[in-house]
Specification:
The structure holds two protein chains of two kinds. By secondary structure, chain A is an all-alpha fold. Chain A has two domains: 1-66 and 241-285, no CATH class; 71-230, MetI-like (MetI-like fold, Orthogonal Bundle), CATH 1.10.3720. In chain A, 74% of the residues lie in helices and 0% in strands. Chain A has helices at 5-32, 52-57, 71-99, 107-119, 122-135, 145-167, 171-179, 184-212, 216-221, 228-237, 242-284. Chain A is globular. The two termini of chain A are 42 Å apart. Helices cover 77% and strands 1% of the residues of chain B. Chain B contains 14 helices and two strands; from the N terminus they run H-E-E-H-H-H-H-H-H-H-H-H-H-H-H-H. Chain B has a two-stranded antiparallel sheet. Chain B is flat. Chain B starts with a helix and ends with a helix. Classes of the chains: A mainly alpha, B mainly alpha. Chains A and B meet through helix 1, helix 3, helix 4, helix 5 and helix 6 of A and helix 1, helix 3, helix 4, helix 5 and helix 6 of B.
């Protein structure tokens, strides 16, 4: 069939090297997070293996000259912000995508207006918003000026995901439900929502991740109360310590947990959809 | 008689119902779109418009006032520092774009075309995405112990006997900025291309092969043209992110390599709003040109 074994091997090795390149810094970061503390710096060689920096992150290490990361408050702010962004962005995305199910006049303009939100570099949007806030005496806060920009950034992602879902969506099912006299609210709950649920989940995942790690937009608009990325950026100017790396490893593990939940929910929803559709077929038969 | 009497009203009724249904749908659409459109106008269009407006304001030492002037613009275009930053941004952007394409395309080709197993393909794609679960800024900082004089790269190369003395240009130079940017953004190139390649109908390739086309011809005439929309989408992602960068250059060049983004941050820091706005508008124009050019290759709405 295919006589591509040579090519396949070459590209396979290339891909393996690519993964090494992608993961190299992460591996190094993990190794260095076990550096001895508090004297050991974020570089080789490892003086002695220890979990000092993990204790440091969790504020259970003995006090030292290295200031602890402002994890408690900054992390809670970031999580709250990401959660709010996730909800609003998915809501806006679903509503807008629903409107796009039939072509309408001016749809091109609205489409690109929404997509523009993910195409404008964050630093520009942050600057623009800071100018507006400065001129109209609006206080710059993470839950106000920064939050609206986060949604501007994530809403297009939610919109595109939902649009892709609606494009593959069999309209006749909804129509059948309407024809049988089921009211629109119930139709949405029983027919539409279960079908678009994978999209809603993906949109939420996108929005949460993007907002949680959002940095350039927040820098100018977040005000004095720092979110997590801003707190990390604050350490750029001064010396960096392995506690940042320990924190990176910990957050990655936490994200894995989140991804697993997403995977499980997704699998469940797919299975339920399959069972439901086969059940429907049996009823019809 | 009765038949007509009965059927006529229903016909008329259903007719009006149809048109009122259409009106209802139009009205419904208006309500569905209003929140999103309003949000984007208020928090996207107005800030950008404000930036253009402020770029023509008068800059005094610590404040701006709304007397219109082109002074900040003249300052920008007559300053060597700013013009250098503009060219450096362009140069770095093109370098990173080329490298993400050269490195990303073969990977996408492998994932999208040469892997038959759906599971393996998903695993590989997920593997590419996992690094994104670490904070962007921490990932940038992780390059420091990689590239330093006593960094991991030098240690490994010396152990392997490839080099004798450590390479010093790796950290705090333009090279380190390029390496960092490529590693962080290359996945945005791989994803869309792999997606487009995965959608290619295998029958097309089989047919070409049956007709005697060589692998190279198949790639050149079928696979590559069909993957172009993916390349364009990837290029849009990479361009948007690299052109607006300032954190990676700041962290990996020891603040020696300044892009337009770095200048904006510095100017805002010293309350030079009008200058910052000028740099912002310049960046927006560059951005708009790049995206418009790329959107000629791909119709985003059709590719979904």
């Amino acid at each position: 069939m295919y006589h591509l074994n040579g090519l396949r091997w070459t590209l396979g090795i290339f891909t393996a090297l690519f993964l090494v390149f992608l993961y190299g810094p992460f591996v190094v970061m993990t190794i260095l997070s076990f550096q001895q503390g508090p004297e050991g710096g974020p570089q080789f060689p490892i003086i002695e293996w220890s979990t000092f920096w993990y204790q440091h992150v969790l504020s259970i290490a003995e006090p030292s000259r290295v200031a602890p990361l402002p994890i408690g408050e900054a992390l809670i702010r970031s999580l709250t912000l990401a959660f709010a962004t996730m909800v609003v962005s998915t809501l806006l995305g679903t509503l807008s995508a629903q409107a796009f199910r039939q072509n309408f006049k001016g749809s091109g303009v609205v489409f690109y207006l929404i997509v523009l939100g993910m195409m404008v570099p964050g630093v520009l949007l942050g600057l623009g918003m800071a100018l507006v806030a400065d001129q109209f005496d609006i206080a710059r806060t993470w839950w106000g000026t920064a939050f609206v920009l986060h949604v501007v950034y994530t809403f297009p992602f939610s919109f595109l995901v939902m649009l892709a879902i609606f494009n593959r969506f069999d309209k006749s099912l909804e129509e059948a439900s309407w024809m049988l006299g089921v009211d629109p609210v119930k139709t949405f709950r029983k027919i539409t929502f279960p079908m678009i649920f994978p999209g809603v989940l993906s949109s939420m995942l996108f929005a949460f991740t993007l907002s949680y790690d959002e940095f350039p937009r927040t820098l100018f608009t977040g005000g004095s109360e720092a979110t997590m990325p801003i707190a990390i950026y604050g350490t750029f100017a001064v010396e960096i310590h392995p506690n940042l790396f320990a924190f990176g490893v910990l957050t990655t593990l936490a994200s894995f947990a989140l991804l697993t939940i997403y995977g499980v929910l997704m699998a469940l929803s797919v299975r339920r959809a399959k069972i439901q559709s086969s059940g429907l077929q049996e009823e019809i038969a | 008689m009765t038949d007509i009497n009965v059927s006529n009203p229903t016909e008329i009724k259903s007719g009006t119902q149809g048109s009122s249904l259409k009106a209802k749908i139009d009205k419904g659409r208006y309500f569905l779109l209003a929140p999103g459109v309003l949000w984007m106008v208020l928090f996207l269009i107005i800030p950008l418009a404000m930036m253009v407006y402020v770029s023509f304001w008068t800059q005094t030492t610590f404040a701006v006032n709304s007397t219109l002037t082109t002074k900040s613009w003249v300052t920008f275009f007559s300053s060597e520092t700013y013009m250098n930053a503009l060219f450096r941004t362009g140069r770095l952007w093109l370098t990173v774009l080329a490298l993400t394409f050269i490195i990303g395309y073969p990977v996408a080709l492998y994932v999208g075309q040469l892997i038959r197993s759906e599971t393996l393909r998903t695993i590989l794609l997920v593997t590419c995405v996992i690094p994104f679960w670490t904070s962007f800024l921490i990932r940038v900082l992780a390059w420091r112990p990689m590239l330093g004089k006593e960094g991991a790269v030098n240690i490994v190369l010396q152990k392997l006997g490839i080099i004798n003395t450590p390479i010093e240009v790796l950290l705090f130079t333009e090279v380190s900025v390029v390496i960092g940017l490529v590693q962080i953004y290359v996945v945005f190139m791989v994803g869309p291309i792999a997606f487009m390649l995965g959608r290619i109908d295998h029958n097309l390739i089989e047919a070409a092969r049956d007709l005697g086309a060589s692998t190279w011809t198949i790639f050149r005439k079928i696979i590559f043209p069909l993957s172009l929309p993916g390349v364009a989408v990837g290029a849009i992602f990479v361009s948007v992110m690299v052109l607006g960068e300032f954190a990676t250059p700041a962290a990996l060049s020891g603040r020696k390599v300044n892009l337009l983004g770095n200048i904006i941050v510095t100017q805002v820091g010293s309350l030079k709003w009008a200058f910052a706005a000028v740099v912002g508008v310049v960046l927006t124009v560059v951005m708009a040109l790049v995206i418009t050019a790329l959107l000629r290759v791909v119709n985003l709405r059709k590719e979904l």
